[in-house]
Amino acid sequence: MDPKDLEFEETLADSELLLKNTARSMDEDAEFSLESILAEYGSGTPAPEEAEAPEPQPVKKAPAAEAAPPQKKAEAAERHADSAVRSAVIPFPGMKAAEAPAPEDPAPEDPAPQDGGEAQDDAPKAMSLQDILAQTVQEALAEREDTIIEEEPPRRGLFSRRKMRDTEQLYDDAEEEEEEEDAFDEAELDLPEPPLQETLAEYRAQLSGAVKARRGAGIFTLALCVMALLEHFSILPAAYVEDPMIRALPLLAAEAIVCAIGWRIFARAIRSLRQGKTTSGFLTMLLCLVTLTDTALYAFLPARAALSLPLPAVGALSVYCALLGESMRLHGMYDTFRIAAIGNAPYIVTVTAGGAAKRVGQVDGFSNSARANDPYARWQNVLLPVFLTAAVVFGVLSTLEAKQNLLLAWNLSVLLASANLLAFPMVCALPLKRIAARLAKSGSAVAGFFGADAIRRSNCVLLTDGDIFPPGTVTLGGLKTFGEESGKVISYAATMAHASESGLSRLFNNLLASDGGFRETVEDVDFYEEGGVGGRIHGETVLFGTASFMRKRGVNLPRNLGLKTGMYLSVDGTLVAVFAVKYMPAENVDWALHALHHSRITPVLAVRDGNITPALLKRKFGTDARAVYPKLGTRLALSERGGGRPYALLMREGLMPYAEVVLGSKRLCLSARRGTVLAFLAATASTLLAFYLTFVGAYSVLTPLSLLVYLLLWSLSVLVDGMLSDRY
Question: pTM above 0.85?
Answer without folding.
Answer: no
